[in-house]
Amino acid sequence: MTPAVFSHGDLRLYLLSLLAESPQHGYGIIQALTDRTGGTYTPSAGTIYPRLAKLEEEGLVTKTVDGRTTIYAITDEGRAELASRENDLAGIESGLADSVRLIANEVRQSVQDAMKTLRADLASAAHDERQSAKSRPRSASDDTRVTSREEMHRADAVINAFRARIRTDLRTHVAQGGALPANVVTDLENALDAAARAVTVGISTTR
C-alpha cells in the first residue's frame, strides 16, 4: 500500500507554509505540491479547495478574484499560527521527505515488476508464434519480421523503464532539497544523443 504523504491535519499547515512564500491560485498550489514531492503526489482539487475554504473561514487565508482566477494569500493571523507551529512544520517536512522516498522506492519496484511481466509476455508470445509457425511454411523474411517485432517490444520496454527510473530519481532528489547541476542534465543529454547515434549506426548496418 502506498504510504500517506500527509498525516491528518498536516496538509492544512503545509498549505499555510506555501502561501507564506507567495500568494497562489489553486492550480499553482497543486503544482507546487507535485513539484515538492517529485511528482509522487498530486492532490486533487477536491482535496485542496475545501481546505483553503476552511482556512479562509478561520481567518488564516484571504482570497481575491481576478477574472476567472482566484488568488489565495496568507493573513497576519495565518503567519502567526505558522510561527507558533514552527516545530510541527519541521516535522512535516521531515515526514514528507520520508514519504517521498518510500513512494519512489515503490515506483522503482513497480517498474521492475512491469519489466518482468513484459518479458514473460514477450516470451509467451514468442512461444505461441513458434508453435503457430510449425503449421505453416515459413521464409527467412517471416523469421526476420517475428524477431524484429519481439525486439521492438523489448526496445520499448527498455526505453520506458529507463525514463521512469531517471525521472523518479531526479524528481525525488530535487524534492528532498538536493541540487541538480546543469552539467548533470548536459551529461544526460550527451549520453542519450550518443546512444541514439549508436542505435542509428547499428540499424543502418543491417540493411
UniProtKB/TrEMBL annotation:
- Sorted alphabetically, which Pfam families does this protein's record hold? PadR (PF03551)
* CDD domains, per the entry: HTH_ARSR
Note down the stretches annotated as region Disordered: 124-152
Organism source for this protein? Microbacterium galbinum
**Protein's UniProt name:** PadR family transcriptional regulator
Ranges annotated as biased composition (Basic and acidic residues): 139-152
The lineage, from the top, is: Bacteria, Bacillati, Actinomycetota, Actinomycetes, Micrococcales
Where in this chain does the record put each Transcription regulator PadR N-terminal domain?
15-83
| PANTHER family reported for this sequence | TRANSCRIPTIONAL REGULATOR YQJI (PTHR43252:SF7)
